[in-house]
Amino acid sequence: MNFEPFKLVPVGYVRKNGETFIEILPKFTDAIDGLQEGEWIKLILWFHGSDNPERRSVLKVHPYNNPENPLRGVFATRSPVRPNPLAIYAVKIHRIEGNRLYIDWIDAHDGTPVVDIKILVERLDCPRETPVPEEELDIPSSRQIGEVNLIPRKSEHLDKLKEVSPEEYDALILEVGPKTTVLTAKELVELIEALNEIYENLPVEIRDRLATLKQRTD
What we know:
This protein is α+β, with helices and mostly antiparallel strands. The protein folds into two domains: 12-123, YaeB-like (Elongation Factor Tu (Ef-tu), domain 3), CATH 2.40.30.70; 125-217, no CATH class. The chain contains four helices and twelve strands, in the order βββαβββββαββββαα. It has a six-stranded antiparallel beta barrel. Strands 9-10-11-12 form a four-stranded antiparallel sheet. Strand 1 (12-16) and strand 2 form a beta hairpin.
């Protein structure tokens, strides 16, 4: 089998000057639009200091670099020595200043290339047994409102669920930032009723303006 090389380009670099921050290169500053202070993200770094043929060929290491620990395959460790020296960190954004993302301290060296940044989503990045398998979610019908993401369950094959009660049928995945919860059909109806009640209690002037905005968009 031939292994064709592929290209990774840095989108920024780890910087340390008393604080730790990610300096995004000017070419990629538009890509951080939408990130929020207080949000958790995943950093994918390239450990360039471990990038040489000798280190790439190491397939077993002593975890934590302690020879007292039995050798393990690098895929079962977080060692920086691996076939492709990638590192993944989950960090919190403390503040954003221009093209700088100030984050928690990490053990990467100053100048380490950042090859990608992704938001942290509990449902995908902190897996646990969930009532609704991923393949049963209607991802294309998802709606994002502010920081709230609504992911409905697929409606197909509902004939098989005739015996399932509204209290048992998990209808909606609700994500707020990285946090995830599941609403049953009964809870979904209760949420709709609560939202309608909150809407009706809005000032009349606000509801009138909302109605005017809706007419313009229809």
